[in-house]
Design brief:
Layout (H helix, E strand, L loop, with lengths): L17 E2 L2 E2 L7 E5 L2 H13 L1 E2 L2 E2 L4 E4 L6 H11 L1 H5 L3 E7 L4 H16 L17 E7 L8 H12 L1 H14 L7 H16 L8 H6 L15 H9 L3
Parallel strand pairs: 3-6, 3-7, 7-8
Antiparallel strand pairs: 1-2, 1-6, 4-5
Helix pairs in contact: 5-6, 5-7, 6-7
Length: 241
Amino acid sequence: MNSMAIPCLTESNTGSSRVAGKKNNSKTYPRLLVCEGYEDYCFFSRLIEAKSVDGQSIHRFHIIHSKGNTNFYNRIDAFRQETPKTFANIRHILFVADNDDTPADRFSLVCNQIERLCGPGTAPSAPLIRKGKNPSVEVLMLPWTNEKGTMEAACIVAAREAHKQHGRRIDDFMGFIGVEQWTSESRRSKAWLRSNLAIRCERDPFISMGDAISDPRHHDLIDFTDNSLDRIARVLAKVGR
């Protein structure tokens, strides 16, 4: 795959790219991260700013969100049309999606869109396998390869470690209401994190995930320096190296 030929679409998706947490469409970093939603956009911007790997900061990415896991194609085409000079310098694309409760199906959904973008046979055979060049493509599934759940599940340990006493109380509460009988792992992880944020955020128990992650007033809610996020940070650090 020497180039990405994306046909012009009539449907567009508005929005700016973010570079390590800052709006910036004039820079030409060669890495593009495409995720599902605004909360994921906040998650990766904050992680890139907070984490270092082997003593080095993570390279900057252009970060865009597609408003859903079926809209990667349209969002990338919109990014290409909005910022053609920036897009021309992209050499690596990292797609990020949630596994939800069906990891294999969700991965296939991403791969189908990669092949629509780049042509047949261009999608990787498994998550975290880089394929092609100029641009290379890679898929990161959250919370991790073949693990059921979402971005919220990736945040649980970091939230628990940020306030261990409340973390234990939420564990007890989850046990009391019988979440182990729920059939959805995604539902369990979201319920745990939502309950934790609700009791710990003094300003607003209904705080959004985006604000909990990106608003500096709430940076104590989820510790983005926690070791539980190292494996995701290492994936980011390897892109383009």
